[in-house]
Write a structure and sequence with these properties.
The protein is built from eleven helices and 18 strands. The chain is α+β, with helices and mostly antiparallel strands.
Length: about 425
């Protein structure tokens, strides 16, 4: 079986462009055909597994990039996306050489993003009001676009945004950086600190050539490790991801500025399960953040989150207890960006896939999780078809024989709504 996507019998076929009315594959009532543009955009997200992580993530540590790369390319070729969000792209030169003729490729590594933030090379809003400010901002956007189109870094994994040249005109591109959040005893709002985060999003404004419609597309690989966290738990990582996501969404909104009529697509590996605080924040615009307030300051608590405020001793793991107060605060992002999961829209159960990552050997045991998403701005798109992930019985304990990575790609076709 060369390619999981090609052989997956239950995936929904892509409708022929311009033929008939587009229907919502979930079976829910769709808008009248007059409100739907019949030409669709195929969107893919795929964590392709960087070479540097092969020893930790591959079964028996036996698969090399040279062996995996043809399978990865087969997945992308078979899907033939108009827009592809790729994570852990390393070596980037291999992807540029393989796909550069077909796609505009925007790339940045984590090191590049950090340098950009430290050099104050963050994005600026392209003003619609005209004048010198708009001209200067457009110049900055043009320079950033050229930089992202030409960058390579084969020493560290990064992210790439692929735009098919025949269907997606690249108008402008941005690298959106952020800072690590912090909490203190008097403020749990996850405000940005002075420490630059090795987190970023690639954002592009595109024109869909078949329809003439414009859209923003953005890809991101969110934080997986909770460095400086009290414990290496999902909870200690989650509040950092929410802090990063809050800044990223606010900058998305600033870049869009007065262009509210242009919709957003946001995808990537968010390193968070569907019921996590991170996905709550992105999809439901609410995140319950907890922190322990003690005489020594505030830290993120281990364990599941709740909405309670409670007082009691905390075990610090060193045999001592300290009176502490568990603070709870609900965080909302103050933007007009409200998203929904494209895969959940497409599936009859209205939920995300059971897994998007499968690896049998990771640390002491295996790992199966749903970490990858394609998010659509609410009310701006419908999903016309989706390629579901293969059943677990077909994949077994590892995704790599089918995808060339420890992740499986997600692919959806979406149509613009007026």
């Amino acid at each position: 079986m060369r390619c999981a996507l090609a052989s997956r019998g239950s995936h929904l076929a892509r409708p022929a462009p311009g033929v008939g009315a587009v229907t919502d594959v979930s079976g829910h009532q769709s808008p009248p055909p007059s409100f739907v543009l019949h030409r669709t955009v195929r969107v893919m997200t795929f964590n392709v597994l960087a070479r540097i992580w092969e020893p930790d993530h591959l079964p028996d540590k036996g698969a090399s990039f040279a062996k995996r790369f043809p399978t990865i390319c087969g997945q992308i070729d078979t899907a033939s996306p108009d827009v592809a969000f790729l994570q852990e792209v390393e070596p980037s030169t291999a992807y540029r050489a393989r796909f550069g003729a077909q796609y505009h490729i925007l790339f940045a590594s984590k090191a590049m993003a950090s340098r950009a933030a430290k050099a104050s090379m963050t994005t600026t809003t392209v003003s619609s009001s005209g004048g010198d400010a708009a001209s200067e901002s457009a110049k900055c956007a043009s320079e950033m676009t050229e930089q992202l189109l030409g960058q390579t870094d084969d020493g560290e994994d990064g992210a790439a945004l692929l735009l098919r040249k025949s269907s997606m005109e690249l108008v402008e591109a941005h690298i959106v950086t952020c800072f690590d959040p912090f909490m203190n005893q008097h403020d749990t709002r996850l405000l940005p600190s002075a420490r630059v985060a090795r987190q970023f999003a690639l954002l592009a404004l595109c024109r869909h050539i078949p329809t003439g419609e414009y859209c923003f597309v953005a890809g991101m690989h969110m934080k997986a490790n909770g460095y400086n966290a009290p414990t290496d738990t999902e909870q200690s990582e989650d509040w950092r991801r929410v802090g990063h996501a809050r800044q990223i969404l606010e900058r998305f909104q600033a870049i869009r500025g007065g262009r509210m009529h242009i919709p957003f697509i946001f995808g990537g590996d968010f390193n968070a399960q569907p019921q996590s605080t991170t996905v709550d924040y992105l999809v439901r615009n609410r995140a319950v953040i907890e922190s322990y307030a003690t005489a020594g300051g505030v830290t993120a608590p281990p364990g599941p989150s709740s909405s309670r405020l409670k007082q009691g001793p905390r075990d610090h793991g060193d045999g001592s207890d300290e009176d502490s107060q568990l603070l709870s605060r609900t965080i909302h992002h103050q933007t007009w960006l409200n998203f929904e999961s494209a895969m959940a829209m497409a599936r009859p159960t209205r939920d995300d896939p059971e897994f998007t990552l499968l690896v049998s050997q990771y640390n002491a045991g295996g790992w199966s999780a749903t970490l990858d998403y394609i998010l659509l701005e609410k009310g701006r798109f419908i999903v016309t078809s989706a390629w579901d992930v293969p059943p677990r019985a077909l994949c077994g304990a590892d995704a790599i024989p089918y995808s060339g990575s420890d992740h499986l790609p997600l692919v959806v076709d979406v149509a613009f709504l007026h």
